[in-house]
Automatic annotation (TrEMBL):
Superkingdom of the organism of origin: Bacteria
Protein name, as recorded: MFS-type transporter involved in bile tolerance, Atg22 family
UniProt GO cellular component terms: plasma membrane
Primary subcellular site in the record, as a coarse category: membrane
PANTHER family: INTEGRAL MEMBRANE EFFLUX PROTEIN-RELATED, MAJOR FACILITATOR SUPERFAMILY ASSOCIATED DOMAIN-CONTAINING PROTEIN
SUPFAM superfamilies documented for this protein: MFS general substrate transporter
InterPro entries, A to Z: MFS (IPR011701), MFS_trans_sf (IPR036259)
Signal peptide: none
One matching Pfam family: MFS_1
GO molecular function: transmembrane transporter activity
Length: 428
């Protein structure tokens, strides 16, 4: 990916807005559970509900927003979701200052932010497809991926320092400000965006809610990739939660060691995302997608063997480095593949369905593995997740997709049968 590859001024503003909000999110990483524990004295069940129930409810709330976004200009939607997240997050420091903060408010804010996150992702993918040529999509996705990993490296350490000095509420303020700056950047992007075509029906149909899933499941190459990513991401996140329990509890690692074990390997994601385009140019999109998808599945099983001390810490860092490097290659190629296989007029619904499923599956698998960890122990549960992850490559597309015809019309509502002709009147 050459640095001289120009993608235009408007993509530059979108890229900057994404990086700003991503940095704010990582600065506030772990702030909600800390507020729940330190300020509201919540127990383990409430903290678990904050992440799982909030994500599930947010995903459910985002389901009708996909079709709604599809038929509207995307830049105003992006700005609106940024402002909604900013306003929702600012209610927390306001309530804290007034001594009125409650757990229910934390839960409601997490729901609103989760729904807005899904909507923003869907709208940004659709917006990016209108900004760029098809051959530039991989470059753009690789840049967004490298930005995500960069903010992962620098955000949590800075956020941890800010929490230590100012408390977790301060990082929530920083996160809110990042969304405000993102909205201002998107507004500064300017430019005219074509108005999406409305379908003939004046009101949205109930079936519109399922259009994204219908498109994914009807496509022979998107369908296996959809199930692969949902299962893989859910199991990896479930493993991460159990690994935190194992490392910080039984193995006695300090919090800074735990943070270091994940911050340093994020460099692999930065490197992998920068190699994605050269690898696709040399070996082809499908081969890179499959090889990276296979290789990323072999690493997590090694986490079941982590032990105490420096050796255990190095093992975690090595496994995470390999895993994150492979994900850094896989993710932008997968994101580009989805955009290329989806007509412009259906991108928002497709990405919304994809994100809703990812959020819901991650929440459900994390909750399920929490129960398994309690019954079997975290190490055994991590090993079980690793074994299942070894099977996820079976869900990758087995052959390269045929070229997608953007001009192919989208399926619309089935035509109503023509009424039978009225009987001829007698003239007698």
């Amino acid at each position: 990916m050459g640095n001289g590859h120009r993608l235009g001024r408007r993509f530059g503003w979108l890229w900057g807005a994404y990086g700003t909000s991503a940095l704010g999110t990582w600065l506030a990483f772990g702030a909600f559970p800390l507020i729940a524990v330190q300020v509201l004295h919540a127990g383990p069940a409430e903290v678990a509900a904050l992440s799982s129930v909030g994500a599930l409810a947010g995903a459910a709330l985002a389901v009708p927003l996909g079709p709604w976004v599809e038929f509207r200009r995307k830049r105003p939607v992006l700005i609106g979701t940024d402002l909604v997240r900013c306003a929702a997050l600012l209610t927390i420091p306001a309530a804290f200052a007034l001594g009125a903060l409650t757990f229910v408010q934390l839960l409601l804010v997490s729901v609103v932010v989760a729904a807005a996150d899904i909507t923003f992702r869907a709208a940004s993918g659709a917006y990016m497809k209108t900004l760029l040529r098809a051959e530039d999509l991989l470059v753009a996705n690789a840049r967004l991926e490298s930005t995500a990993w960069t903010t992962t490296i620098i955000g949590p350490p800075l956020g941890g320092a800010a929490i230590g000095l100012l408390g977790p509420v301060a990082t929530v303020v920083a996160d809110a400000v990042s969304y405000l700056l993102s909205a201002l950047g998107l507004r500064a992007a300017g430019g005219r965006e074509p108005r999406p075509e409305r379908r003939e029906a004046a009101r949205p149909r109930a079936g519109d809610l399922l259009d994204g899933w219908r498109h994914i499941l009807a496509d022979a190459t998107l369908r296996p990739l959809f199930f692969n990513t949902a299962l893989f991401n859910g199991l990896v996140m479930a493993t991460d939660a159990l690994l935190a329990v194992l490392m910080l509890g039984r193995l006695g690692f300090a919090p800074w060691q735990y943070g270091l074990a994940f911050a340093v390997p994020a460099i692999g994601g930065l490197l992998g995302s920068r190699l994605a385009r050269p690898l696709v140019t040399r070996f082809g999109q499908h081969r890179v997608l499959v090889v990276a998808g296979v290789l990323r599945a072999i690493w997590p099983f090694g986490l079941a063997f982590v032990g105490p001390g420096a050796g255990g810490l190095l093992l975690v860092m090595g496994v995470e480095l390999g895993l994150i490097f492979c994900c850094g290659v896989f993710n932008p190629v997968c994101a580009t593949y989805r955009l290329e296989r989806t007509a412009t007029g259906r991108v928002a619904r497709t990405l919304s369905a994809w994100s809703v499923t990812a959020k819901a599956s991650t929440a459900l698998l994390t909750a399920a593995w929490g129960v398994l960890g309690a019954l079997l122990g975290p190490r055994t549960a991590i090993g079980l997740a690793g074994v299942l992850l070894l099977a996820t490559p079976l869900l990758l597309p087995r052959r390269a997709a045929a070229p997608f015809d953007e001009r192919k019309p989208e399926p619309g509502p089935e035509p109503k049968p023509a009424p039978a002709p009225a009987p001829a009147q007698s003239r007698g």
